[in-house]
Write a structure and sequence with these properties.
It contains 7 helices and 18 strands. It has helices at about 80-90, 130-135, 180, 245-255, 285-290, 310-325, 330-340, and strands at about 5, 35-45, 65, 75, 135-140, 140-145, 150, 155, 165-170, 195, 205, 210-215, 220, 225, 230-240, 260-265, 275-285, 305. Helix 1 crosses helix 4 (about 245-255) and helix 4 (about 245-255) crosses helix 6 (about 310-325). The structure holds zinc ion. Zinc ion (ZN) binds near residues 131 and 137.
């Protein structure tokens, strides 16, 4: 079966845009803004590999290692975590489409005309969708910095283990000209936002050697040593002046549902990078009481800390439920909860249909992703 599917977009509900609130003085009295930080633990549920962004020459004899900081701890960069959470917010929060600004991955298909105007990337910093208000927007010289900052996730000492070195699978993606994959059933608009299925931990797609393509002998795969299951990391999400819908959406994007997991890092189509995000500690700072001498009981300079069950019952559930009730895109959640279902179905094999041939045959015309289940 194809290793990814799309979270559909409800075209009847365009992104709700408004002016971002970035200071508590700008908000009407009685309306609360949320500032503070959420500490999050991250657990690898499958092997995980974070590619080093620096260009390093490939040594065919030595497996590349997952990214480390100067102290030698393994890390998942905050920018990767932010990108992952933003993609969830964009889908579940019915936001604008930042990834479909024009050509798709350098191909000649113009997706702009496949996205209704009201869903195209926000362009005005005073009129932003939920994702752009929360995570920021940069478009055509207009900029809004966003209100969420995510630190690098750092491995806990003694809690990162190495998996065996592997040669990654050579997967050739269908090109966007296979319109049926990328467009909805009426071939009018794009299918939605792309997410990869989880694989069972033992079902990685690998080769048994490095593979070279063509006359120029271009390397088609990589030799890597991922981190093993149960490797654990810690990160902190800082947020400032979030409106209730932004706060609820951020919390939902982090916690998802019990039977869902996130996917991050290198090799998603091969079964790498399934992770669980677990909030462990929440600090809320109430700026309206921060500078007064009498805070609420249990608060200190306007700061309130929550942990464990109390964190869930006193804060998280309330704001997540309010978001689900009022703002969640149900269509996208139905799809994402199926694609990111955990544990995965161990009877499904994932691969691109016959790797490279199927897409160029007559049989492939008009086929949709579910049809790839039966491609030999
Ligand atoms: Zn936007």
């Amino acid at each position: 079966m194809n290793p990814y599917d799309f979270a559909r977009i409800d075209w009847s509900k365009p992104p709700e845009r408004r002016k971002p609130v970035w200071h508590h003085h700008l908000v009407e009295p009685g309306k609360r803004l949320f500032s503070g930080s959420l500490e999050v633990d991250i657990y690898a549920e499958t092997p995980l590999f974070v590619a080093n962004s620096g260009v390093t020459p490939i040594d065919p004899k030595r497996p590349a290692q997952s990214m480390q900081n100067k102290q030698g701890d393994y890390i998942i960069p905050g920018s990767s975590l932010k990108g992952m959470l933003r993609s969830v917010v964009e889908a579940l929060g019915n936001s604008c489409l930042t990834l479909y600004d024009g050509d798709y991955e350098g191909h000649r298909v113009h997706y702009e005309e496949r996205v209704p105007k009201s869903f195209q990337h926000c362009r005005d910093a005073t009129n932003l969708c939920l994702a752009c208000r929360t995570f920021g927007m940069l478009k055509g010289g207009d900029i809004f910095l966003g209100k969420v900052n995510i630190g690098d996730a750092v491995s806990y000492p003694g809690k990162a283990w190495k998996y065996d070195p592997i040669y990654t699978a050579v997967l050739v993606e269908p090109k966007p000209r296979h319109e049926a994959f990328y467009l909805d059933e009426k071939l009018q608009y794009i299918s939605g936002r792309k997410f990869y299925f989880h694989h069972s931990p033992g079902q990685l797609l690998t080769e048994n050697r490095l593979i070279y393509f063509g006359k120029n002998q271009i390397l088609a795969n990589r030799y890597i040593q991922p981190l093993d299951i149960e490797s654990s990391f810690h990160s902190r999400v800082d947020f400032t002046n979030l409106e209730p819908d932004e706060f609820g959406m951020l919390l939902l994007a982090i916690t998802l549902e019990d039977e869902m997991r996130h996917k991050i890092g290198y090799g998603k189509p091969m079964g790498l990078g399934s992770v669980e995000l677990r909030p462990i500690n929440l600090t809320l700072v109430d700026y309206s009481t921060r500078y007064k001498s009498h805070g609420q009981p249990g608060t200190k300079g306007g700061k309130t800390e929550y942990q464990g069950a109390a964190m869930w019952t006193e804060v998280l559930y309330e704001h997540i439920d309010a978001f689900i009730e009022r703002d969640l895109s149900r269509l996208a959640m139905d799809d994402l909860s199926r694609i990111w279902r955990w544990p995965p179905d161990p009877t499904v094999d994932y691969y691109y249909p016959s790797k490279r041939d199927w897409f160029d045959t007559e049989d492939s015309i008009g086929k949709r992703i579910a049809d790839t289940k039966n491609v030999p």
